Amino acid sequence: MLVVSYLAYRKRRQDVAQYCAWAMLAASFYSFGYACQIISTNLQQAKLWLNVQYIGIPFIVTFWLLLAIVYTGNRAYLKRWAAVLLFAIPVIILISQLTNDIHHLFYRELRFDPSDSNLSSVVITKGPLYWLHFGYFNVEAVVGMALYLRMYAKSIPIVRRQVVMLMVSGAAPWLLNMIYLAIFGRAEVDLTPFGFAISSFAYLWGIYRFNLLRLVPIAYQKVFETMQDGVVILDYDHNLSHVNEAARGMLRELRLWNGQTVSVHKVFASNPELLAKIAAGGADESRIAIRQGQELRQYQVRISTIYDQAGMEMGKLIIFSDVTQAVLYQEQLLANASQLEELNAFKDKLFAVVAHDIRDPLAMMVNLSEIIEEDFIEPGSEESHIFQKIGGQVRDTHLLVENLLDWVRSQRDKINFHPMVWELEPSIHQAAQTLKHHLERKRIRMSVSVQEGSEVYADKDMMELVLRNLMLNAIKYTGTGGWIQVEAADHGGHMIVSVKDSGAGVDSEVGKTLFHEVQPGSAPGTDGERGTGLGLYLCGKFVRLNGGDIGYTSVPGQGSTFYFTLPSTKTANVRQRTWKEIDAI
Questions:
Q1: Distance of CA 519 to CAs 293, 514, 529, 543, Å?
Q2: Rounded CA gap, 331 and 288, in Å?
Q3: Which reaction does it catalyse (predicted)?
Q4: Which of 117, 158, 192, 510 gets the most CB atoms within 10 Å of its CB?
Q5: Parallel, antiparallel, or unpaired for β 295-307 and 313-322?
Q6: Over pLDDT 70: what percentage of the chain?
Q7: What is the pTM of this model?
Q8: Mean pLDDT, to the nearest integer, of 163-184?
Q9: What average pLDDT score do residues 377-385 get?
């Protein structure tokens, strides 16, 4: 009993553990005092040990009743005044027993008879206060047992085991005391302390086997009842054992169940798919549709087997999660994805039409305007001036369409990427040649200085687009009569290409996102030229895709230098970046 009291005291933060500890401590006083009373050799010793017994006897059942009240979830009824009233009679009993020599209301007679043949030589004649204590003790025991029986009927299996252990612990001393008083009358020995020994073993078994006092069962019950998922517990024969409120709300078949034994096959007779999964045995998780009235609900059903600590099957646990809304959202997302796929396919076709029916004619118009301007228009004439403006607009529009199509393809990861080793110098000169009319119109001097043998490892088409965009950007922001220098040289295994101009420079705020975001609208050039804000964004993306880096230096009012690096043939094995890596930079 002291061991149980100690184990319960270690968990004293829980009220049930405190009451259990006090009840076992009181029972220890009773048992120890009675053992010493039996071996007493005179009346004074017998009275002393009888007083020791009554330090605990009046309070044992009261503490046990408090344990039952809290354990069964009825703590709300245990007010302070109610606790005081519960202990009133035990205190009166203790005082009356200690002062019995004055009034003799507890024991009518108390004498020591060594010649008595019984195990104890103490002869006791009980008084009215003793029988008052006996009646109060039985009332408390009946109330406590009723609380446990009520909880047992409503509890889930894991809680029922603990309730049974507590009922056994309380019933053993109670029944043995009734046998001692009612059947045998004045027996040789009081059987009640032996009942408390049985209680102690029951408590120990419950603590180590069923985690008794470790978690208050009402907590298990609360979790079970307040779960949002529906929970159904079946016994070994597949009969309904317990159902929580969520399950009753989900499934119409469970709302009428009143707790009586009924087979799950009868309850779910209209759902053969669910019954098949239950009968299959083992763990299972799947989604099933169950019609509830006019509505078809979707449930994620998880079925698992319940085993005891010995590994024997005890029943099944079925958890229902209502996923109807999630399924509707999923179907809607799939429909939206299909619609988006159709829209993207339409967009791809649209841009294919743009590429074929707009870009190609524009390219022809660019070539035609250049031929007419060079071969059929007299330089310096009014017609020449008009054709220069027309040609400039056509070239700008053609470049806009090119950049727009490249940007769209880059967003869709549709641009073909074919890195190879190629000579840089011819491509730089070719890019400069395509912009000859822009240079002549603004009388800008362009010089090209490329290190001999400047081979790079990159996608040629992409890099030629980068060169054209950087050169065109320099022309755009360089005033009439200015200059542009294009240089390329090998530095430590990487080719550095730079385009330097004497233009207006770059604003520091704009420069922060120059290569990483599409500019909402680029500033007009020195001659009123307009842009899309796509050119430098594409340059940054294409350079990084080829394993290089891009940047610029600028002094407002004095000019800018845009530069980028590319792997040379010495570092041709450099790892190329993917589109996702580029977007993350």
A1: 57, 7, 16, 18
A2: 16
A3: ATP + protein L-histidine = ADP + protein N-phospho-L-histidine
A4: 192
A5: antiparallel
A6: 73
A7: 0.41
A8: 73
A9: 68
Q: Would the pLDDT of 64 be above 50?
A: yes
Token code pair at residue 330: 């999923």
User: C-alpha dihedral over 574, 578, 584, 585, to 10 degrees?
Assistant: 30
Domains of the chain: 2-219 (no CATH), 227-322 (3.30.450.20), 416-584 (3.30.565.10)
Query: What DSSP designation does 379 have?
Result: T
Cβ atoms of 486 and 498 closer than 8 Å:
yes
HEC secondary structure over 461-522: HHHHHHHHHHHHHHHHCCCCCCEEEEEEEEECCEEEEEEEECCCCCCHHHHCCCCCCCCCCC
Burial pattern 135-159, b for ≥16 Cβ within 10 A else e, equals ebbeebbeebbebbeebbeebbebb
Give 170 or 572, the one with higher predicted confidence.
170
Spatial distance between the Cα atoms of 145 and 50, rounded to a whole number of angstroms? 28
Q: What is the distance between the alpha carbons of residues 152 and 217, in angstroms, rounded to a whole number?
A: 11
Identify residue 55 by its one-letter amino acid code: I
- 3-class secondary structure per residue, 25-61: HHHHHHHHHHHHHHCCCCHHHHHHHHHHHCCCHHHHH
Q: Bigger pLDDT: 443 or 205?
A: 443
Q: How far is CA 476 from CA 111, 407, 527, in A?
A: 125, 21, 7
What is the C-alpha separation between 85 and 532, in angstroms, rounded?
89
CA–CA separation, 341 and 173 (whole Å):
78
Instruction: Please name the residues in contact with 441: beta carbons below 8 A apart, sequence gap of 6 or more.
Output: 388, 392, 527
Contact 504, 475 (CB under 8 A): no
Q: β-strands 240-243, 550-555: how paired?
A: unpaired
Are 111 and 50 in contact by the 8 Å Cβ rule? The answer is: no
- DSSP secondary structure string, 82-103? HHHHHHHHHHHHHHHHHTHHHH
Place of tokens 């967009």: 347
Q: Is the pLDDT of residue 203 over 80?
A: no
Give me 141's structure tokens: 């025991």
CB 199 within 8 A of CB 283: no
- Choice between 109 and 517, residue whose per-residue pLDDT is larger: 109
Given a cut of 90, whether residue 483 has pLDDT beyond it is yes
